[in-house]
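S1.2 Input.
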Amino acid sequence: MKKIREVLVDIQAGWSVNGESKPRLKNEFAVLKVSAVASGVFLPKECKVINEKDLKKIVTPEKRDVLFSRANTLELVGATCLITENYPFLLLPDKLWKIKVEKKYMLPEYLKFVLSHSAIRKRILAL
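S1.3 Output.
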């Protein structure tokens, strides 16, 4: 049995950018809002459209990534979701982490389950 920190492959955060709250067109870039992960299910429409010329750092949600909210209200800190497909035009903000694990030791689905457990969320909020 390995500890979570022993199976982490990568943790990435996006960057802070202002966007426009409007429906995103197919090939428009948008930055995710923390509310995209709040329910525990990924909501890709929870985003703000940004101008392509404003792009600085591209960190996108990819299939089997676990997204983790590192900041916001107490209810949203530690919120997680599992990504089920690639989203090349959606960008992570600085408040969301993208977590990858070594799949031969831990499935992303299991990591999402553990991080979503009420006892673990309580410990995260106590940090």
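S1.4 Remarks. Residues 4-126 form a domain with the Adenine-n6-DNA-methyltransferase TaqI; Chain A, domain 2 fold (CATH 3.90.220.20).
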